[in-house]
Every structure is written in structure tokens, then in C-alpha cells.
């Protein structure tokens, strides 16, 4: 009986430790290329290299950051092209994907066009993965300990 619980605990621990690699396997990365002074081509992919196909794209102008000026989606390669209006200079926000698999970038636009060197990732309010993994790990180990205790008491 005690031997079974000693074998069960390491197996549960290994299973829980395997969770982070699955959770983090779908991180997103967005690359961009300036096609000319006005067109920026974005390519969104998962960390595995798989394109983020048909993902929602929302573009917010600097003069109205709460309402998207344009909405689109990525193609089968995870790409889309954005041509900002140079008559609205400032920080344009490009949101690709949805919560959980989302990237937000700021694109500075001047009267001369897009400044590619200053495109940056906007901070996102995603849930940190470490506390989530700690909760799952603690819950799993606690459940295993409780099950082992119940099993021991039922056999006594």
C-alpha cells in the first residue's frame, strides 16, 4: 500500500512538470517588414513556427484608441498588410489574435511614413503562467495525497 503511494507521487510530479511545456508551446511571435514608406507586412506565428491562420486583426488609430478603425484577419500564412493613414500621425495599435494567443504592437507613424525601428510590443495583461502552474501542481499533489490517505484508511 505504502509502495503504491510512493510510486504514484513521482508520476504525478512528472506529469505536472510536463504541463509547462504544453502551456508555453503556443506562445506567439510577430515579425514585420516595411514594404515601402507606408505598408507594413506582419507575420504572426506560434513558437512552433505554425502560422496564426485567420486570426482577428484590429487596428486602432491614435486619435481613437478605444474603437478599431480597421478590422481584418491574417491569411493562411499568418500574414496581413497594414497601411496607416499618414494624415493621422502618432502611435497606431495593431492587435493580432485574441486573449490567450494575442500580440499587440505599436506602430509609430509620422507625416513621412512608418518608423520601422520604433515598432514595439505593447504590454499585455496576460495571466502569468508561473502562478497558474503552481496552483495546478499544488492541487494535483494535494489530491494525490488525499486519495492515497483515503486508500490507506479504507484498507485498514
Mean pLDDT: 77
CATH architecture: Sandwich
Name the helicity range.
25-40%
**SS element count, helices:** 2
**Gross morphology:** elongated
Strand content: 25-35%
- The CATH C-level name is Mainly Beta
Which key features would you list for this structure?
3-stranded antiparallel sheet, 2 helices, 6-stranded antiparallel sheet, 156 residues, elongated, alpha+beta, Immunoglobulin-like
List the helices and strands and how they pair.
Blueprint: H1 2-24, E1 28-34, E2 40-46, E3 56-60, E4 70-73, E5 79-82, E6 90-98, E7 101-110, E8 113-114, E9 120-121, H2 129-155
Helix pairs in contact: 1-2
Compose a concise summary of this entry.
The chain is 32% helix and 32% strand. With 156 residues, the chain is an alpha+beta fold. Helix 1 packs antiparallel against helix 2.
Describe the protein's architecture and organization.
The protein is an alpha+beta fold and 156 residues long. It has a single domain (2-155), classed as Immunoglobulins (Immunoglobulin-like, Sandwich). It is 32% helix and 32% strand. It contains two helices and nine strands; from the N terminus they run αβββββββββα. The protein has helices at residues 2-24, 129-155, and strands spanning 28-34, 40-46, 56-60, 70-73, 79-82, 90-98, 101-110, 113-114, 120-121. Strands 3, 4, 6, 7, 8 and 9 form a six-stranded antiparallel beta sheet that branches. β1 and β2 (40-46) form a beta hairpin. The longest helix has 27 residues, at 129-155. Mean pLDDT is 77; it is low at 19-25 and 124-128.
